[in-house]
Write a structure and sequence with these properties.
By secondary structure, this protein is mainly alpha-helical. It contains four helices and no strands. It is 57% helix and 0% strand.
Length: 82
């Protein structure tokens, strides 16, 4: 089945997410969402991971991966302050 929501991160977005997941103090759910986007990015080496692989690697449900993909495509990268 073809994915409806394709994550296509820009260089700046990818850099921000990589920094977000490795520095500072952030909520665990925010870090998990960032890691999902990084693994779902079709511009990475080897292409994007499938939802099943991503959910297994990050110990989240497939629905969570699908939801994060959909939100990114529909809304974009939302940065919360605080």
């Amino acid at each position: 089945m073809t994915k409806k929501y394709i994550v296509d991160l820009s260089v700046d977005e990818r850099g921000y997410l990589e920094e977000f997941t490795t520095t500072g103090r952030h909520a665990a759910d925010q870090i998990t969402r960032a890691r999902i986007l990084l693994k779902a990015d079709r511009n990475q080496l080897g292409g994007s991971g499938c939802d099943v692989e991503i959910s297994a690697a990050l110990d989240v449900g497939i629905a969570t991966v699908e939801r994060v993909r959909r939100r990114f495509v529909e809304i974009g990268l939302v940065v919360r302050q605080g």
